[in-house]
TrEMBL record:
The keyword GTP-binding applies. InterPro entries: CHP02058 (IPR011719), Tubulin/FtsZ-like_C (IPR037103). It comes from Noccaea caerulescens (Alpine penny-cress). NCBIfam families: lin0512_fam. This is 50S ribosomal protein L34, chloroplastic. The lineage of its organism: Eukaryota, Viridiplantae, Streptophyta, Embryophyta, Tracheophyta. It comes from the Eukaryota. The keyword Metal-binding does not apply. Keywords: GTP-binding, Nucleotide-binding. GO terms for molecular function: GTP binding.
Length: 195
């Protein structure tokens, strides 16, 4: 599948089959679908630059298909948990990273390690690799030991910090909450779980 930008419209290549609201009729696969922000059905945001999207089935995904140092071949990958964390007041990127990690692991239960569902793998063999998206200007302020303390179990093999996240305005400076400015820090995380 590929998407391209032509005069403020998105072209979705013909190999897609989509349903259209409200009639739910099939769009012909013989011609591209053109979407633009002028549509009366719903608002579609404009894309500011051409993009190419490729897809790989879940069964084909391996550690080698993901760029960067995490995950790596030091473990067999089972799950990827993703989260986002914010620090709206106080300008503490470590708090934002800790919240991102809590967000990633809070909505999951992985009983396979406790129940012996993976033959030959015990609870003590659970491994984690963590990839944090943090604004570049804040990398040096990040306390990785505090971030690691969020994970209640599993051996942390690697923590990779990459450019990512966001610094934006919270809209208000609240000195009582430790603000020195209106900055809000946002951090993204991917937690790779395996054995």
């Amino acid at each position: 599948m590929s998407l391209s930008l032509i005069s403020g419209s998105i072209i979705i290549c013909p190999e897609l089959r989509l349903r259209q609201s409200p009639s739910f009729s099939r769009i012909s696969s013989s011609r591209p679908l053109f979407l633009s922000s002028h549509s009366k059905q719903s608002f579609i945001p404009r894309i500011s630059r051409p993009i190419k999207v490729t897809s790989i089935s879940a069964m084909e995904t391996t550690a080698e298909t993901i760029t960067g140092g995490v995950p790596n071949a030091a473990m067999k990958l089972l799950f990827v948990e993703m989260g986002v964390g914010y620090d709206q007041h106080g300008q503490d990127v470590t708090s934002a990273a800790m919240r991102a990690c809590k967000n990633a692991i809070s909505s999951n239960s992985i009983p396979a390690f406790r129940r012996g569902s993976i033959p030959g793998v015990s609870f003590g063999e659970m491994k984690l690799q963590i990839k944090l998206g943090v604004p570049r200007s804040l990398h040096q302020q990040l306390d990785l030991d505090k971030v690691k303390s969020i994970f209640p179990y599993g051996k942390i093999l690697n923590v990779e910090v990459v450019d990512g996240g966001l610094i934006c305005s919270s809209g208000v400076l609240v000195e009582e909450m430790g603000d020195t400015n209106e900055d809000c820090y946002i951090v993204n995380v991917a937690v790779y779980v395996g054995y």
